[in-house]
Amino acid sequence: MLNALELKVPPLAVVFLFGTLMWLISAYSVFTIALPWRSAFAIIAYTVGFAIVLAGVVTFRRAKTTVNPLTPEATTTMVISGIYRFTRNPMYLGFLFVLAGWAIYLSDVLAFALLPLFVWYMNRFQILPEERALGAKFSHAFTAYKGSARRWL
């Protein structure tokens, strides 16, 4: 039953869902914390997140391969240059930074608690199915790449 969620929900929709949940939780939570300079730190996290996402998209576009995360089998080439030398999933890493910035802005412990759940969801329902498809398509090259670049950081 859980496999039915694999590659079904666009990652950007997952980000918006988690962001909305974080906001709803923080609106009714009693676990608000005082974070000095919260706006500045939130803007820094947003900026880093958007820059990482943009670097991933630009690298995919330059390689002329699909950026559609719901159809990894449509990938025409394995991208291992640019930001992909450091992380296999820069777009998801960027989304995590954006959500972390949102948690900082909301300044709520429970909002921060959703970040590991986001990572788990993305690993289970997006990244693992993508990696299976890439492994099937690029075999040894993908196995070697997995040994040279970490999944997140």
Secondary-structure topology with pairs:
Layout: H1 11-28, H2 38-62, H3 90-106, H4 109-148
Helix content: 55-70%
**Which series of helices and strands comes N to C?**
HHHH
Query: What distance separates the N and C termini?
Result: 30 Å
- Give Rg in angstroms: 17 Å
Classify the beta-strand content into a percent band. under 5%
Oligomer state equals single chain
Count of DSSP strands: 0
The helix count comes to: 4
What would a concise description of this structure say?
By secondary structure, the chain is mainly α. Helix content is 65%, strand content 0%.
Can you walk me through this structure?
The chain is mainly α and 153 residues long. It contains 4 helices and no strands. Helix 1 runs antiparallel to helix 4, helix 2 packs antiparallel against helix 3 and helix 3 packs antiparallel against helix 4. The relative contact order is 0.20. The model has no long low-confidence stretch (mean pLDDT 96).
